[in-house]
Drug/metabolite transporter (DMT)-like permease (Scopulibacillus daqui), 300 residues
Amino acid sequence: MNRKMAFNKNKMLGPLNTLAFIMPAAFVFMWSSGAIFVKFGLHYADPFIFLFLRLFISSFILWGIVFYLKTPLSYHAKEWGYTLLTGMFMQAGYQIFFFMALAYSISPGILTIILGAQPILTAILTKERKQLLQWIGLILGMTGLILVVSDSLFIKAVSLIGIICAGLSLLGITIGTIMQKRIRMNQPLNMAIQYTGSAVVLFFLVLLFKPSLHWTIMFVISLSWMVLIVSVGATVLLYLMIQKDSLTNVASLFYCVSPVTSLLDFFIFGSTLKWLAVAGMILIIIGLILVNRKRTAASK
């Protein structure tokens, strides 16, 4: 009987371990592709109108899923308020200040380095217990990230307002990720509430700044990708991983975003990859292995 139970357990662990690998890999690819499609889309729309359309359409899709699945809406008002607040940090705040940092002459390289500090900031704020190798992994990942984007560090002037916006963007995604860990609401409903609240914020910004928009096939493709693949697909994976795993382990995946985006940029736009960037990618991979070493050992 015990041998049969052990066999069944091993049979179940196989697909679960495969899924545990596929989800982070799929998330990194989806999230990394966002910068490429935003680069296409911003040729035809200002950031605020782009973000508003992305959040509005995403919330419409998610509410459709909620009602199709007949998800119960009888949650406490306090929980709805907490979910809305989480969305203000994780969706509206993070993305608004991200675009504002770029608008105030912060180079993508410097911005990526600032945002790449999220795993370390998450580890400090949550005070999760970590082994020495995991701390070494976090430092290696940050070092690798700096190498990946080092070529763009001194290309543009750095403004104080831009640095503040970049810091607020980092704070938004970090606090939002930590707050998301406490939410036990059904994920489609959770995301629908967050996206709806964030879309309302962007709507008022659109009214205030009256941004320009030119409808083209390329913009529609860009917007569709950002809605379906990034806002819905990648965010669902992110929220599922936050619920199931250590916050530091999940946050460490953001180290991979910059090198994967660089690879996509190389293949799509022909941007060159120098040996320094390749060395940085190797350090990031080593760092991720060390950060997730405890989780891998526990799953065996």
